[in-house]
Amino acid sequence: MKLDILAVSSALLGFVAGETRLTGDILQGYPVIENLDITDVPANTISRYWISAAQAQGGGVSYFLPIFVARGSNDSIESGRRLSLGGSIHGDELNGVAVVQRVFRELNESGIVQGGDFNGTVIGLPTQNPSGNVNNQRQFFSSSSNGFFYDLNRFFPGESIADGGDIVGSYVSTIWNNVWGNGSNVNIAVDFHTLSTGSIGPLWAYADYRLDGVQRLAELAQPDIIKIDPGQEGTIETTWVDSDVPAITLEIGPANNWNQTLISRAVDFTFRLMDDLRMTSGGTPQVDLSNTYRATNFSDVYSSYSGWVEMYISPLEDVEEGQSVGTVYNSWGDVLERLVSAVTGRVLQVQVDPAIEQGSSVASIVYNETMS
After folding, report:
1. Closest-CA residue to 63 (of 154, 170, 196)
2. Are strands 140-142 and 81-87 parallel, antiparallel or unpaired?
3. Which superkingdom heads the taxonomic lineage of this protein's source (predicted)?
């Protein structure tokens, strides 16, 4: 499967040429750009830029996104791969922030980029949703008409204001077109996520195996679970895949905390990936999938009542169809509902916030049709 990634990437080496346009502004010591073109970023250098993805209501204060670019030798524009690493498109999903930061810190400290031995380019966006980060919640907040919340990861590739888009469409269009160059700056991508606030889970990947190269990409992560998945329109992962760029979504545990164990596993994956793509010289990695569970289906456990839930299962635990997985209580402590699994499979995520609403999912179990 290794050749699949290389073949797809090689087919995408042609560029939609632009230029890295500077606004002339400096923010926290780094230049602000309007557009990124990796061909004119300094070679053998790790550069830092800001870009304004949108402007907030009332004075036009910009939402600035930080951009890392690790650019290899001049020759690597043609010979090397172009990798995108994105974090925190959801504002409460913070482990990906640390992953991107650590990858670039380790690249810098190793001296491999500056030494001329790095064959390729890596673009890193550690915080893609500063509005969500500031508000400490998942969504992007638009203050128009007293305010609306939007899931940015449902609007890619977006639409500029000039083409009739709104603030949300324009925001994601800036990332897609002005950072990733509508694919010209990138030919393989990883989008780092976590679960939403209130749940716990392991390291796992969404992977659309229909595109060559995606399976190898997912397996290099050596996750606890691979969810073989057709994707969802408007997400970063699916927009890449629809553009014939191998991409996965890598979910790195729970929201709103830095889980150092899972962060380290995601960082290790990123360097394995760079070895596999021959960006670095570590050789072809041997992948260990002995602890990886692959599945094609989700089964959610839903509560019929609002109340307080006590869960009896943990992530990565195997469960049987009909097994008791939790109990919902009212405020008196009376039993409202006993929850059971509808399938035989493995626990992916579990609600740890005991306060729940009726109709909400309190656990997700992954399985294959033949296992149910």
Report:
1. 170
2. unpaired
3. Eukaryota
